[in-house]
Amino acid sequence: MTSAVTAPLERQFGQMSGLKQMSSQSSGGASVVTLQFQLTLPLDVAEQEVQAAINAATNLLPSDLPNPPIYSKVNPADPPIMTLAVTSNAMPMTQVEDMVETRVAQKISQVSGVGLVTLAGGQRPAVRVKLNAQAVAALGLTSETVRTAITGANVNSAKGSLDGPERAVTLSANDQMQSADEYRRLIIAYQNGAPVRLGDVATVEQGAENSWLGAWANQAPAIVMNVQRQPGANIIATADSIRQMLPQLTESLPKSVKVTVLSDRTTNIRASVRDTQFELMLAIALVVMIIYLFLRNIPATIIPGVAVPLSLIGTFAVMVFLDFSINNLTLMALTIATGFVVDDAIVVIENISRYIEKGEKPLAAALKGAGEIGFTIISLTFSLIAVLIPLLFMGDIVGRLFREFAVTLAVAILISAVVSLTLTPMMCARMLSQQSLRKQNRFSRACERMFDRVIASYGRGLAKVLNHPWLTLSVAFATLLLSVMLWIVIPKGFFPVQDNGIIQGTLQAPQSSSYASMAQRQRQVAERILQDPTVQSLTTFVGVDGANPTLNSARLQINLKPLDARDDRVQQVISRLQTAVATIPAWRCISSRRRI
């Protein structure tokens, strides 16, 4: 496969423009080539180039290749939003596969937002013919003779035509064979005037198209459906629509057929968004509390407090205009912005309060204070936005990820500056007065004494630092060196590992392992994994398909219970499962990865 199929294809693929990376895996009967393109290249253009490269390599491939090369588009950043398993304790898996492909998958594909439904563990129904070599040889036949007879009889073509003076009619007959019994009666040759039927030289039985491919859900044979969304579709809305449709779909199936949701990305997305929303609300509450702690005046606290929701609401409006979604990155930007958006308002309030305390009327103090500090606010705003500019122009996948974060944060800071220079002075003119600023209670007096002590301590510390300049510079230089050393030592990565409750792994057996032994071994592995109290469901795959190029390896996906229902983190679970699986003979330990 490597020299006859993979190499010619790779030579043609290597000539494509925009190709960033190419890798391949080949086994005795399959070859998988993975192509990664530059993000600036439209996927439709890349698809056309791939098809052209395959066409150019056709003449270089073996003439007896059973099937021509095929390709599919894959977005590694957009894994399936939902994984379903269809099982039955009464129907054969070939019938379940046919039902899933013709009814269930088509119904789910019609849901708004669903882009693609793929099946794994395929047991597509087929008629399997096992030749008896001795019987074939005794009749003077060859396997090629039998194959030609089967191929010719299975072609559903026109049987002839009637051509009249005015009309021509094509004759067709519904004689295509569908069952194993019909194939057994197929005449493949004649010996001494007597027909030789396929059943005389072969065992013909109803089975699966690929008997070396299987999937199991919680140790039960299953057909696994992976549902992917359309580009730009809302994941949560799409998943909710599928879940609403599932009860009605299940009722239309035989009672022995069960549809189970194995994994749902929206569970982790909802939990993550909830956590970020809570952090955002907590940040707003803490900011308002700190403002009151330092200003010690309710009207003066309300004024910058109003700037927070107004800035965030204005940012939401811009996000809608730019077609941004509320996700972890945009919510993180809003959370960080919560601390920035009040800075300008506090500076304006402090300057206006200073003039009011000097005896100026509130309106005059607001005009004078805001005009005096306006240029400073503008310069501070643009200096903060300038820090985010490099994120806007970063390339590759990092730039795509952090663009929404940078734009959201920059917009929030810009809107807060506008609010501070317009609404904040107006509210100060209406809500602040000499009486309100001078009014103190027991809490404000206690805070005042505490701040006086802090200022006094700071003064003493500053005096000591100024009296020992060389020691201060030495400490600063040592801190700089330590920072550089820590930068070198600290582990680096693209994204921190997140516990999203999904473990994906590969189980490796000896090269000579058969499908039957692989199926038996995966049952042993599944039994031990499902004994772990943190495991909610398990899906295993054995056989050669688009994601698994060799027969001696098996894929598995472990779905853990929600974080609030388990005590162990995902890394602890992985270590425990590796130890449990390692005791099974002739297996390599799980190599796992967690999706972000």
Task: Look at the structure and give the CATH class of the largest domain.
Answer: Mainly Alpha
Distance between the termini: 34 Å
Tell me the count of domains.
5
Name the average pLDDT: 83
As a whole number of angstroms, the C-alpha radius of gyration is 35 Å
GO molecular function, one term: xenobiotic transmembrane transporter activity
Organism: Salmonella enterica I
InterPro entries: AcrB_DN_DC_subdom, Acrflvin-R
Pfam families: ACR_tran
Topology, element by element:
Layout: H1 2-13, E1 19-26, E2 31-37, H2 43-57, E3 82-88, H3 93-109, E4 114-120, E5 125-131, H4 133-138, H5 143-153, E6 160-163, E7 168-171, H6 180-184, E8 187-191, E9 194-197, H7 198-201, E10 202-208, E11 213-217, E12 220-221, E13 223-229, H8 235-251, E14 257-264, H9 265-295, H10 298-321, H11 328-357, H12 362-392, H13 396-431, H14 434-438, H15 442-467, H16 469-489, E15 502-508, H17 515-530, E16 535-543, E17 553-560, H18 570-582, E18 591-593
Antiparallel strand pairs: 1-2, 3-13, 3-14, 4-13, 5-10, 6-7, 8-9, 11-12, 11-16, 15-17, 15-18, 16-17
Helix pairs in contact: 1-2, 9-10, 9-11, 10-11, 10-13, 11-12, 11-13, 12-13
Q: What do you see in this structure?
A:
The protein is an alpha+beta fold and 596 residues long. The chain folds into five domains: 1-73, Multidrug efflux transporter AcrB pore domain (Alpha-Beta Plaits), CATH 3.30.70; 80-124 and 214-268, Multidrug efflux transporter AcrB pore domain like (Alpha-Beta Plaits, 2-Layer Sandwich); 125-155 and 175-208, Multidrug efflux transporter AcrB TolC docking domain, DN and DC subdomains; 269-489, Up-down Bundle (Multidrug efflux transporter AcrB transmembrane fold), CATH 1.20.1640.10; 502-593, Alpha-Beta Plaits. The protein contains 18 helices and 18 strands. The chain has helices at 2-13, 43-57, 93-109, 133-138, 143-153, 180-184, 198-201, 235-251, 265-295, 298-321, 328-357, 362-392, 396-431, 434-438, 442-467, 469-489, 515-530, 570-582, and strands spanning 19-26, 31-37, 82-88, 114-120, 125-131, 160-163, 168-171, 187-191, 194-197, 202-208, 213-217, 220-221, 223-229, 257-264, 502-508, 535-543, 553-560, 591-593. Strands 12-11-16-17-15-18 form a six-stranded antiparallel sheet, with helices on one face. Strands 4-13-3-14 form a four-stranded antiparallel sheet. A two-stranded antiparallel ribbon has the order 1-2. A hairpin with a 2-residue loop joins strand 11 and strand 12 (220-221). The longest helix has 36 residues, at 396-431. The radius of gyration is 35 Å and the shape is elongated. It is a multi-pass membrane protein. Its main location: membrane.
